[in-house]
Design brief:
This protein is elongated. By secondary structure, it is mainly β. A hairpin with a 4-residue loop joins strand 49 and strand 50. The relative contact order is 0.07. The chain has seven helices and 63 strands. Strands 1, 2, 27, 28 and 29 form a five-stranded antiparallel sheet that branches.
Length: 951
Amino acid sequence: MRLAKFNKFRNALASPSAREAWYRELAIDPAISAGADGLAIDSSSLYLKAPGGASLQAIDLDSSDRSSGRLHTLSGPAGAIVDWSTAAHSDALVGAGDDQGTVTIWCRRIQVQSFKAHRDACTSVRFHSTVASVVASSASSSKSGEVRLWDIDSATSAPFWQVGSDSGIDSLSLSGDGRLIATGSRSGKCTVYDPRQSGDAVSSTPALYAAGRPTRVLWAGETPFLLSTGQSRMRERSAALWDQRNMASPLASLQLQPSTRPLAPLYDEDTRLAYLAELGDTAVRWIDADPSSATPLALLGSVTLPSPMCGCALLPKHRLNVMKGEIARIHVVVETTGGSGGQGAAVIPVPHVAPRRSYLDFHSDLFPDTRAPIPVQTFAQWMACEPATIPKMSLDPAKPNLAALQSAYSVSSCDDKSTAKAVPQVASKSTPDTAPSQKGTLLLPTHMQAPLSAAGCDNCKQDDTGALPSKAEEQHSPSIQQQSAANVTAAQISTKPSWKPPLNHVRFKYLEGFAYRPTESFTSLHNVNQRFSQQNDPIRVGPRVIAVSLAGAGGKVGVFRRDSPGRVPDDPATIVHGADVVDIELDPFDPAIVATAGADGRLQMWRVPDTPLAGEVFFELEEYVHVTADRIYQIRFNPSVKSVVGILVSEADMHAVYIYNGLMLHYIVGKTPGGIHTFEWSPDGDRIALITKTSKQLCVYDVRTQELLTCGPAMKSNRPGRIAWMGMSHICLAGFDSGSQRKLSLFDASDVSHPLSTVTLDAGPGLLAPIVDSDCGVVYVDDRGSRLTHAFEIVGGILFELPKFESSLPSLGLAMLPKKYADVSHCELARAYRLTAQALESIGFRVPRKRPEYFQDDIFPDTVDTETPAVDTLAWLDGASAAPRLISLCPPHMTPLSEAPPEPVRKRQFAINAEEKPDNTKDAISAMLSRVDEPDDEQECAAGSGSDWDD
């Protein structure tokens, strides 16, 4: 029995993104034609109709400011735009038609073509699927319509193909292979044409929909199937699936409830799912559009939006987050956000995710090779009916093959012509209605050779006023094609920033967090201060001692020896500061010094004695600093210079970081009236990164010059965030966005104007405290108040999620030991202590390795010696700098893996090479049965002789 075929994406789920991911507070014009989608998307931008309708506005997809985005105006036509679209084979071409019949083309947000295409309103503009220079347009009046195809690289001013219709044209669509074109008319019919053969229709559907109401048609990719939507006379909305080879009746149809609002169809060729967006309503449905399915057009699911929509579009496939199981992402436009979403319109991303148990690996069954965004034919080749092979590309981040496809399909836009030397002239507004005039060669993006980034294109040298480059500038600058041939690298495969590596190889995807034996932990811990400041850590761990903030009057800090775990006595050794303790620190270069900062404005440094820490223990006050400020909030020792400490203070209405050496104040850094949440030293001790409260900015300062090096937006919430330096080049920021969304962002330390990568964890009240392992590129995130410890690996500027560690009790704080104290012989990346309300747990993080008997020098490089100063204090105060010192982690008794002998190859003998022994089992069974069936010889003799044996 043959099993019925079902769509494997039928269990996928979709939901609107959180509000902070919306593109909000937009001003748009919702008036569009019956066949328009109201939104267009390419790999870098969203395109919306600007107020007034005479221009488009482009919004960067990767804009960090989602409240308004980076708006770019694309102006040109004299009339009001009614339809616009992007090219599937390019990330830089946008076309639009207006109510005066004018078609306008933009390349990299610069207008390069404008011509009169029709006498009536231009209802649809679509780019060809395989040829970069072919554009299709349609016009509609009250009684007739027409469709025209244009070669925008041609010197002629007339369309090379056109066809008329006795009714208005609502929509048009080109097949994925570029051979056929389909139209939906006001008569309720769908008609298919072959532009290269004649003007006669190849096939046509019966009048399935009511006349006078919009009819939409959409090709199902490269297949011969079409999807149409419309309304019956009773206003029942329906969708139908047609076979172009036999359009007498639909293959399947779907009936929906009556409504006056039209259905806008979207189709995903890889998943064979169709999305039906109800323009003017709040529902988006997805159906099974696979003709070979057991139930074609079966309704699989729906999602409800917070406001009625007026536009929709699908994100290009290669921009999806495939490592999260995202099979599609629909962007919908709503005219009003309502609630706390802000004023004006908004674009809401709606990700469609296929559930999987784990997303650590790429799921090739969910993401087959998809169509590559490059043109594959010239206009002459297409007109000659030469066969075209549509190139495919893998969505696996570890297999970037778009660059190779670009080289293999490097055809020019018209008869192998080189890239244009001059920018074409824009057509005059007085152009006759019959044909375009003053048409030059279109400056096309030569087959994705220089993808458009979120900030624009450097190849299109355009100043702030929008003027085109002069001829003199063009003569001194290489052409786009020349730049591409010299600079096509793996970093240009995606439209994401150039820091993305060619291979996203996650080395620690099998990271395992584990708890040490209970004998390695500190148990029966009492009076832990559970109301410690969220800006600071209530636990500090050093090579010799552990300091924990305790509850009680006078500001108590419990001190324990790290080499004496077990049950904590009822009267542990305690430092009494004299006022509430706001922060605790351990001197990195003197393991016996514990520093406490109090609410009384005093910084005290205590020496821990070598005696057992139990009962009444005397702690000698090593150093006392009375800070000349109203209040202390935070203290941090310089990681490279001894006896230099940074103190976050407030004085009057100003907040700043004071840099002390002993009792002397040397520098005041980051002075601001808006308040400071937290600060951290860079590993070399020359810079300080901090987060401001009122302006919500992430700032980096040079300590000795007090100069602001770079500044950019941090998290949007007023709640505190935390900072950690990932080496010298990156900064990790964990905090809250609007709506209590907790996020982790990665910034380039030299330019923090926008994050390189951002990961949203969830919505919750607990603070996130990042702790970094710069050697391995791993960020551990302590989830305060939760039982989880998150982990992320940074690969080429991108945050990849690693397995979480879950404990039995909620966390109050997490502190890591220096890297040299990890058990590298057991492949332990880090060792930490986790503070709970009753215990101090000893935990570790390790990875499995194939040959653990050798020192794994590929994951344990030389690490920073955090216990030895890198530069003398006086020399540092005079301006000297030095890189941190490095030490080897290789134990004396272990051999590095790089020096290990090659692993012996085991020789295996397979059955096909060995002499096969005959199987005599069947013969033995047959012989045994034959002996049972044969009569006994003595009995036969007795029976034959007439013996009375039986008597």
